[in-house]
Amino acid sequence: DSGVTQTPKHLITATGQRVTLRCSPRSGDLSVYWYQQSLDQGLQFLIQYYNGEERAKGNILERFSAQQFPDLHSELNLSSLELGDSALYFCASSPAIGTDTQYFGPGTRLTVL
Amino acid sequence: AQTVTQSQPEMSVQEAETVTLSCTYDTSESDYYLFWYKQPPSRQMILVIRQEAYKQQNATENRFSVNFQKAAKSFSLKISDSQLGDAAMYFCAYRSAGGAQKLVFGQGTRLTINP
């Protein structure tokens, strides 16, 4: 158990819908990262937050957004869902920025029908 | 942009034997970190081992060790005394020491352990 929690574990929804994925980092970790794992794209970085502020953006679609709250949990919002958004979404956390290793949560499996 | 390549989509090894998984990367940076993550059927991403580029000594964690060749941009993982529980997808990952902290992953190697 990495100490990073993600809810829900599984999510099934229809095209065009909007969903919210939630992540709670390890106790004391200030930095949160979101990754997407799909069969065709592999593991890709989406976005990073540090202590409530956005720090880096990767291959995140405009239909996707995220935020980190004062209690340091983070949410990833996916809207106007398409079949191709079906994937495993991971959250990872690290204590700060710099040399720290990222520890991954169990992931949320999103299926868009 | 940095890239990570794992040229072995699948590998298999007999239980108790030794296996080496290959990884190469491309970067113009001199300071960075390299990681091996394991993803078992549960889909959890588990850190196996980490290497700092400025360290010449290869990292070791129990039965897991790496062969880090900075000039060749090579970072292989050796698993000794393979166990059934080692069966998983293994991902090599790169992270810059500064700037963006994102992990750049290879495509993964599926390791099968034969009893």
How would you explain this protein's 3D organization?
The complex is a heterodimer of chains A (about 110) and B (about 120). Chain A is mainly beta. Chain A has strands spanning about 5, 10-15, 20-25, 30-40, 40-50, 55, 65-70, 75-80, 85-95, 105, 110. Chain B is an all-beta fold and about 120 residues long. Chain B has no helices and 12 strands. Chain B is globular, with a radius of gyration of 14 Å. The interface between A and B is medium-sized, with 26 and 22 residues.
In DSSP terms (H or I, runs of 4 or more residues), the helix count of chain B works out at 0
Per DSSP, the total helix count of chain A is 0
The low-confidence parts of chain A are none
Give the termini distance of chain A in whole angstroms.
31 Å
Q: Which percent range fits the helix content of chain A?
A: under 10%
Largest sheet of chain B: 6 strands, mixed
Q: Any idea what the shape of chain B is?
A: globular
Radius of gyration of chain A: 13 Å
**SSE order of chain A, one letter for each helix or strand:** EEEEEEEEEEE
Q: Structural class given helices, strands, pairing of chain B?
A: mainly beta
Considering DSSP H and I runs of 4 or more, what fraction of the residues of chain B is helical? under 10%
Mean pLDDT of chain A: 93
Summarize the structure.
By secondary structure, chain A is an all-beta fold. Chain A has strands at residues 5-7, 10-13, 19-24, 31-38, 42-50, 53-57, 64-68, 74-78, 87-94, 103-104, 108-112. In chain A, a hairpin with a 2-residue loop joins strand 5 and strand 6.
Helix and strand arrangement:
The complex is a heterodimer of chains A (113) and B (115).
Chain A: E1 5-7, E2 10-13, E3 19-24, E4 31-38, E5 42-50, E6 53-57, E7 64-68, E8 74-78, E9 87-94, E10 103-104, E11 108-112
Parallel strand pairs in A: 2-11
Antiparallel strand pairs in A: 1-3, 3-8, 4-5, 4-9, 5-6, 7-8, 9-10, 9-11
Chain B: E1 3-5, E2 10-14, E3 19-21, E4 24-26, E5 32-39, E6 46-52, E7 60-61, E8 64-69, E9 74-79, E10 88-96, E11 104-105, E12 109-114
Parallel strand pairs in B: 2-12
Antiparallel strand pairs in B: 1-4, 3-9, 5-6, 5-10, 7-8, 8-9, 10-11, 10-12
